[in-house]
Design goal:
CATH superfamily of the largest domain: Tetratricopeptide repeat domain
Largest sheet: none
Radius of gyration: 15 Å
CATH topology of the largest domain: Serine Threonine Protein Phosphatase 5, Tetratricopeptide repeat
Structural class: mainly alpha
Shape: globular
Number of strands: 0
Length: 141
């Protein structure tokens, strides 16, 4: 957790390379301990750091690993959040249909687990994606 916290602090400071270094240390520890849930969190944090660095291909790879582990450990909320993160990255790639697909998966899970704040974020993300497509009627909905 100390590595995770330190990585998050560096991420908050905008020092993403240092954040990645500490998240990688956390990943080694989580794997040594067999902590799949911890490993899942690390992959999500690495995805965020790489997204902020603008390295979207790397971010997608880490988000996919995060999603796989979230499914393995039964973390529905983590799955939903990761779908939202993937939707955001694909939106940055201007792959809007794929972005919408992931945001819809995020929305579905937020409803399933009763995450009203996440549901709001998913709706907002979907609105932005449809607006980018020029489909203002659907974006407004």
């Amino acid at each position: 957790m100390a590595y995770c916290n330190r990585g998050r602090v560096y991420k908050s400071l905008g020092n993403f390379k240092e954040a990645i270094e500490y998240h990688n240390k956390q990943l080694v520890t989580a794997k040594e301990l067999g902590n799949k849930a911890g490993e899942e969190r690390v992959y999500g944090n690495l995805g965020i750091a790489y997204t902020r660095l603008g390295n979207f291909k790397e971010a997608i790879e880490f988000y996919q690993k995060c999603l796989s582990l979230a499914k393995e450990v039964g973390d529905k909320a983590g799955q939903g959040q990761t779908y939202g993160n993937l939707g955001g990255v694909y939106g940055k790639f201007r792959q809007l249909p794929r972005s919408i697909e992931y945001h819809n998966k995020h929305l579905s899970i937020t409803k399933e687990v009763g995450d009203r704040a996440g549901e709001g974020r998913a709706y907002g993300s979907l609105g932005n994606a449809y607006e980018s497509l020029g489909n203002f009627l659907v974006a407004t909905e």
